[in-house]
Amino acid sequence: MGFSETIFLFFLALLIFGPKRLPEIARQVGKVMNDLRRASYEFKSQIEAEISNLEMDKKPLPPSPRPLGAIASLPAKPEPTAESSALSTQPVASPEPAAATADAQPLPNSETPQLKAPDA
To answer: Fewer CB atoms inside 10 Å of the end CB: C or N, the chain?
Structure first.
């Protein structure tokens, strides 16, 4: 609710109740709002106290078993099989380039020669 709406409601209440009763009504409204705020705070603190009591009374749960077929249930290191042992005996190619030899061909120049079309 904006400032202009508040002023409008104030003038409307002034016209309806008059200048003599308006302070009494404002006091009553203030008391009711204060009581509601206090009741709300008490309710909130009571609920929080009950929740904290429940948390303190809780016993820790035992750990649950791992679900079958899940990634977490797979072993950390797979057991060797016949296929994996055959793969491990083959030499692994090194990722480094081979050293240059004496008969190695030089790389072509980045400039390509221009080909001429035969004269007809």
So the answer is: C
Residue 74 lies in a domain: no
Residue 114 lies in a domain: no
Confirm if 34 and 42 have CB atoms less than 8 A apart: no
**DSSP codes, 10-68:** HHHHHHHHHHHHHHHHHHHHHHHHHHHHHHHHHHHHHHHHHHHHHHHHPPPPPPPPPPT
User: Six-digit token pair at 48?
Assistant: 């929080």
Cα(25)–Cα(41) distance, integer angstroms: 24
pTM: 0.39
Let me know if residue 34 belongs to a domain. yes
Cα separation, 81 vs 29, in Å, equals 82
